[in-house]
Model the fold of this input.
Amino acid sequence: MTTVPEQYKDILNSKSVAHIATIGPKGEPQSTPVWFGWDGEHILFSLTKGRQKYHNLLRDPQIALSITDPQEIHRYLEIRGTVERIDEDPNLDFINSMANKYLGLEKYPWHQPGDERVIIVVKPEHTTHQG
Amino acid sequence: MTTVPEQYKDILNSKSVAHIATIGPKGEPQSTPVWFGWDGEHILFSLTKGRQKYHNLLRDPQIALSITDPQEIHRYLEIRGTVERIDEDPNLDFINSMANKYLGLEKYPWHQPGDERVIIVVKPEHTTHQG
Done:
């Protein structure tokens, strides 16, 4: 069962980006926008294995994401949780589905040969919200 | 002197919100969108003294903010830094200026009697960007 209140699920089905907060190597907070998916129980997003955020999450799986309502600037949902698992994305199915959601394209246009993509699967444990 | 690259300063002058990453009481990351200002050297935003983020920053002044380009979904700027100082906002001048920037209103419409507002002044120390 998810901990996300019903009245904020529209934000999870929007095309807003999620800004993820992770802990860096010196214990410092880091923030980055990512394209995200929602499977009804988990937040999912894509990273390459070369990214700082990937290494942050291997070291410390705690994460928070904040997502604003694209229609109403004052309304947002924050999800805090932990990385439940990290899946491989060898055929780029997931990142391509994100390009479809956010760009309306069949394939992610910025894939580079050699990029190894993973899917970060986040289990929500706590939420905050406004509006 | 600022550490923000010239070619990303347009994002600091946009009406995007900044998503701030702070460290919570158990060492966990937290993320929240805020309205922000830019004075040419510092990022400024408003909090009430009752907010979790305020207490987080008193405990640990490390912060990161990510801001997306409102015109181009793939482009963003992340600023990492520390809270240089926290100013009082007794006459609500700063929060009213934010309501003017983001809502086009003269006064912040959600002020509650008893809310004590402060201005968080962040010194950028490092940036990451994309696009």
Remarks:
- The helical segments of chain A are 9-12, 52-59, 93-103.
- Chain A has one domain: 6-130.
- The first helix of chain A runs from residue 9 to 12.
